[in-house]
């Protein structure tokens, strides 16, 4: 049943190689969270088009593995090892990005942290919120504030790899994750017109659950239908080539519509601790 659902929810999408080549060939593409999952798949996908990839992540050994494959595919690769939870590490990353000889053409904000925990279990875990906010919101803001002039010079593109959650009603146990992703989404959308005036295109992809390393700690996801990282990478590549400013799964209109009309019910019916009527 799960396989059938995945086939229906995440149908096969192909790439127009000629169009993608025109968009990315010889360009400098920066990808955060590049060592695993979606970031790794994006790196391998773009490496077939003679690009200069700048890969950012915490794990140096894994970045080096990805870089080796990129180079074998005929593209140039620069790795930046950084813990984007730390503001000082972000500052060092910014300095490295500003020193790139040809600037930046495409910046893909992909790094993120997922966490699900009830309010009751979060009462003494304020660090859950500071760490999630640091990576999902503050780090990409800090990076983009610094490199906007670089992107303006190259008339570049920014891709925000977001989650469908930010378009839906807030869900119990997702406070840290949903608040941080929504904050960055709002910040990003607020700047779209100003970036456009600078010649920079901002685009967002709202992804569903993706089967990456990030979701492994949550055993509940084992039987959930999920998109594969390769499928997500193809959709991001297609968004780069598209005239659209944002995209999401074909079925997202249904939960989004339900969220719009169902707020009263959602906020007034106790789904977590239903009353015992016996």
TrEMBL record:
Keywords: Oxidoreductase
Family: Belongs to the short-chain dehydrogenases/reductases (SDR) family.
Designated name of the protein: SDR family NAD(P)-dependent oxidoreductase
Keyword Mitochondrion recorded: no
Record-linked Gene3D superfamilies: NAD(P)-binding Rossmann-like Domain
Record InterPro entries: NAD(P)-bd_dom_sf, SDR_fam
One Pfam family hit: adh_short
Natural source organism: Flavobacterium sediminilitoris
Coiled-coil blocks: none
PANTHER family named in the record: DEHYDROGENASE/REDUCTASE SDR FAMILY MEMBER 7B, DEHYDROGENASE_REDUCTASE SDR FAMILY MEMBER 7B
């Amino acid at each position: 049943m799960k396989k059938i659902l995945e086939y229906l929810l995440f149908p096969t999408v192909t790439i127009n190689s000629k169009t993608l080549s025109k968009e990315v060939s010889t360009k400098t593409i920066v990808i955060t969270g590049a060592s695993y999952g979606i970031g790794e798949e994006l790196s391998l996908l773009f490496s077939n088009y003679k690009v200069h990839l700048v890969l950012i992540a915490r794990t140096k050994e894994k970045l080096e593995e990805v870089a080796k494959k990129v180079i074998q595919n005929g593209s140039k690769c620069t790795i930046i090892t950084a813990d984007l939870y730390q503001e000082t590490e972000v500052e060092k990353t910014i300095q490295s990005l500003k020193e790139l000889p040809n600037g930046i053409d495409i910046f893909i904000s992909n790094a993120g942290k997922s966490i699900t925990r009830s309010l009751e279990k979060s009462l003494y875990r304020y660090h859950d919120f500071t760490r999630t906010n640091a990576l999902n919101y503050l780090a990409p803001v800090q990076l983009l504030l610094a490199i906007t002039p670089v992107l303006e010079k190259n008339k570049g593109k920014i891709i925000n790899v977001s989650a469908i959650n930010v378009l839906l009603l807030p869900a119990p146990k997702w406070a840290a994750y949903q608040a941080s992703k929504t904050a960055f989404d709002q910040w990003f959308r607020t700047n779209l017109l100003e970036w456009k005036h600078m010649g920079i295109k901002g685009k967002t992809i709202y992804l569903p659950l993706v089967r990456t390393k990030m979701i492994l700690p949550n055993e509940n996801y084992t039987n959930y239908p999920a998109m594969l990282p390769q499928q997500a990478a193809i959709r991001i590549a297609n968004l780069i080539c598209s005239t659209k400013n944002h995209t999401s799964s074909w079925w997202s209109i249904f939960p989004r519509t339900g969220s719009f009309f169902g707020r009263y019910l959602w906020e007034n019916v106790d789904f977590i601790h239903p009353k015992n009527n016996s």
